[in-house]
Design goal:
124 residues; alpha+beta; 5-stranded mixed beta sheet; 5 strands
């Protein structure tokens, strides 16, 4: 699989805010492919607010875990401002095999980190 196989997203959408090119270099394409299928099933655009993160950037964020899946390219936060979209995103994510979901007031965290076992859902 390559980035050319991804229908709805471009590598730059997953770049760390502090370092250009990190989306292409560090995002796990198998995860991005799942997110691509989530977007397809939802039928509406999904905006990535946070994809890959450097350790330095991750350390500056208030609610970020020191072992965040964003550090390894297995996670993305997507913008979500209403309950209809939130439900659609979470339902599609679970249906494609994304097994970790965090729900915030204006975003949904999605990840499929293979080093983190189990299906989990949490709120921020």
């Amino acid at each position: 699989m390559t980035w050319a196989d991804i229908r709805y997203f471009r590598p730059a959408e997953f770049d760390c805010l502090t370092l250009e090119g990190t989306g292409r270099e560090f995002m796990q394409l198998s995860f991005v492919s799942l997110l691509d299928e989530v977007r397809h099933r939802c039928g509406f655009a999904i905006v990535v607010s946070s994809g890959y993160r450097t350790h330095e950037h991750n350390d500056t964020l208030a609610n970020s875990a020191p072992n965040s899946s964003h550090l390894y390219g297995w996670a993305a936060d997507v913008v979500c401002t209403n309950s209809h979209q939130r439900f659609a995103i979470v339902a599609a994510a679970l249906s494609v095999g994304i097994n970790r979901v965090g729900i915030g007031s204006n975003f949904v965290h999605l990840d499929s980190d293979p080093d983190k076992v189990g299906r989990l859902c949490w709120v921020y």
